[in-house]
From TrEMBL, chain A:
Molecular functions (GO terms): sigma factor antagonist activity
PANTHER family in alphabetical order: ANTI-SIGMA-K FACTOR RSKA
Organism ancestry: Bacteria, Pseudomonadati, Pseudomonadota, Alphaproteobacteria, Rhodobacterales
Organism: Roseivivax jejudonensis
Transmembrane domains' residue ranges: 100-120
Protein name per UniProt: Anti-sigma-K factor rskA
Automatic annotation (TrEMBL), chain B:
Transmembrane segments: none
Protein name: ECF RNA polymerase sigma factor SigK
Pfam families found in the cross-reference section: Sigma70_r2 (PF04542), Sigma70_r4_2 (PF08281)
Superkingdom, natural source: Bacteria
Record-stated family: Belongs to the sigma-70 factor family. ECF subfamily.
Encoding gene per record: sigK
KW Disulfide bond (keyword) present: no
Length: 240, 181
């Protein structure tokens, strides 16, 4: 074990009390950025100063003994494991296309795409017809969602035909191909009734004969890469 | 195996990509690390985000742990504290709370988690902090545990920033001399 006692702080510290105070300020995060950078240059060259930093780090970490433990909510662990292990965390079998998708399609990325997509016209690209369509009607709710895939433009048009996005939440669309895990397509538009998403080829290739699903998620969409809320409805994706 | 060796062993397995070890490490350490995040960030949702960032970094960087020569809990605590403080500094400033001397009392003494080998060191630290004037001891705690900056300390004490810096540096030198005795 390496305890602060092993570092044998000599009286006066590496280069005197002044340096020791600097080391402590550095550990505490109190230095202005420029000063911290200069200090790091010195650290690289002065082992005694480095030892001082290590000793302060060890001692000050002991102050954390006085902090009340607080057990985080169970969901936090699931989220952390999903974030750490990546989108494959829940499935041992990794579908081949997973390797092609950098991070799955995060809600944030989807939201950014949506922002760009707002500027497009209201219908399919220039009189085009969609190659694939799916219609989700949500039971017990006046919510109906229509989605169309325009192959040439590489765009998914999502239309909220009826109903509203429930308050304090978002509706997220997923494509489920075979036994594979759901892959996010983006959020159902809340303010407008339609939106277009440009899908990466790897995601678009999942669409034929797959299932379109919509789940209720916290505002901004799922943060885990998988649905976290109830699935409100599903529909087969069919050729138009 | 002491609890310390156990955490060390878990970190070594995490460094090799052992998910089960990561899960166990989380169960052992998350209450402490979340406590630290919550203390610094106060807001629960923000603290959860910081905790997530910390554990993802632990998962990705556990192999770096060996290199730096820290004891395992120190490494975990420092990494987590720095992430939480980074987030705290990046958000818009909030009005500082007045410096409360009661804080000095609340944190006195190491908790039950302190290990036997570390206990004497920890006791020495707490002893040395008790030797500081109360308001200076409170400042040291506040800077480490709450992540206050000099500017926030100055506001909380109604003093000039440079004065606060001089006070704290003097307190640190005194603390350091006590620890070296």
């Amino acid at each position: 074990m390496t305890g602060p006692g092993d570092t044998d702080m000599p009286a006066g510290g590496g280069g005197g009390g002044e340096d020791s105070a600097l080391a402590a300020e550095y550990v505490l995060g109190l230095m202005p950025e420029a000063e911290a950078t200069a200090f790091e240059t010195r650290l690289a060259a002065e082992p005694a100063l480095e030892q001082e930093v290590v000793a302060w780090t060890e001692y000050l970490a002991m102050l954390a003994d006085g902090v009340e433990d607080e057990v985080p909510a169970t969901a936090v662990k699931r989220r952390i494991e999903a974030a750490a292990f990546g989108p494959d965390a829940r499935s041992a079998r990794t579908p081949f296309w997973r390797a092609l998708v950098p991070y799955g399609l995060g809600a944030v990325a989807a939201a950014l795409l949506a922002w760009v997509a707002f500027t497009f016209g209201p219908l399919g690209p220039e009189g085009d017809t969609p190659l694939l369509v799916a219609d989700i009607a949500v039971e017990d709710q006046p919510l109906a969602i229509h989605a169309g895939w325009f192959e040439e433009a590489g765009e998914l048009l999502v239309i909220r035909e009826a109903g509203n996005v429930p308050a304090d939440s978002d509706l997220e669309l997923w494509v489920i191909a075979g036994e594979g895990p759901p892959v996010s397509l983006g959020l159902v538009p809340e303010e407008t009734d339609r939106i277009r998403y440009t899908l990466p080829q790897a995601v678009a290739s999942l669409l034929p004969d797959a299932t379109l699903a919509v789940s209720q998620e916290p505002p901004g969409g799922s943060t885990t890469g998988a649905p976290t809320g109830p699935i409100l409805g599903t529909a087969p994706i069919t050729y138009y | 195996m002491t609890p310390q060796e156990e955490v060390e062993d878990l970190l070594a397995r995490v460094a090799m990509g052992d998910r089960k070890a990561f899960s166990t490490l989380y169960d052992r350490t998350s209450a402490k690390l979340f406590g630290i995040c919550l203390r610094i960030l106060v807001d629960r949702a923000e603290a959860e985000e910081a905790l997530q960032e910390a554990y993802v970094r632990i998962w990705n960087r556990a192999d770096a742990y060996r290199v730096n020569g820290f004891s395992p809990m120190t490494w975990l605590i420092t990494l987590t504290r720095n992430i939480a403080i980074d987030r705290r500094r990046k958000r818009p400033a909030r009005p500082a709370e007045a410096l409360d001397l009661a804080e000095t009392m609340a944190d006195a003494g190491p908790g039950p988690e302190a290990m036997a080998a570390e206990r004497s060191e920890a006791e020495r630290l707490h002893q040395c902090i008790r030797e500081l004037p109360d308001d200076r001891a409170a400042m040291v705690r506040r800077v480490y545990l709450d992540g206050d900056s000099y500017a926030e300390l100055a506001e909380a004490t109604g003093t000039k920033l440079n004065t606060v810096r001089t006070w704290l540096r003097r307190a640190l030198i005194q603390l350091r001399e006590c620890l070296a005795r």
